[in-house]
Hints:
single chain, extended, six-stranded antiparallel beta sheet, alpha+beta
Amino acid sequence: LCVARKFPCQEFGSTALTNNDKRNATIVADEPSLILRVDPHLYRDTAAWVARAQLEKRAALLSHIPQLQFLRELPPEDKIFTRLGENMKENKLETGTVVNAQNPIAEGCFIVIEEGLLAKQRVVDFSIYKSKDMNANQRHLSIALPPGRHAVTVAMHGPKTMFPDPTLKDFVSYPFSMTVIEPASFYLLKVSDMTSMLLNTQIERIKNAVRAEPTDIEVIRMYIDKQEAIQWQLFKKKCVKEARESIKMEKSITNGQWPM
């Protein structure tokens, strides 16, 4: 039974070295090949060094997550970030990938972003917005709201941010979806690891921090503010264009290029 095919820049035999066990497969060369033999002691030392470096990188990443900042108050000898990072698994997401409750990344996990950019979207019913929700006198431009329910971007998640898998209902205030804007690399942080290493009060602090999201009315106001800002920019460009045309015409009149 062929269990794998190896190509240039790939290795074989590491499982036996890592587990200190016998080889569990036979290698057959399909064509003349050049292979490099690695000393087993050197391999084990290098693998251990790489593992430590990766663990330190994951611990440093966790220490910068806003929802976990209060864990810095724990005694240094607890090494809580190192312990949390021991079982974290790395993965990647391609641009355009959509993550939601029907297409989760990993149930029972938090997603910790190392690189990339994701847009968080919520479906909001714009029909719940009433004019009394906001003083119309404070608005200088008329903003037309789309009717019915629409997906609205409520946040952007980049490096050193964390969000729960959409299936983690205890940590989700409103159903949401994530769309990958830039290719992302991330780690999976199991909730079971967190609950086994942290106190219930600490878990509650994380839960409250993650669930602290704007209401639908606040999201609609954010949408209105954004649309108003866009319209103001267009209005300013129009005013600048008209002013330049007026100055140009006045200059032409002054130079006698226009008869009055």
